[in-house]
Amino acid sequence: MENTYQLGPIKHFPVVTVNHILQDVLTD
Prior knowledge:
Oligomer: single chain
Mean pLDDT: 74
Distance between the termini: 22 Å
């Protein structure tokens, strides 16, 4: 997944970041 957003366009970066934050909020 890291390689996907790193190699992919910037559009992919926010998606991964939002997903990570969402999971963090859900876990909290």
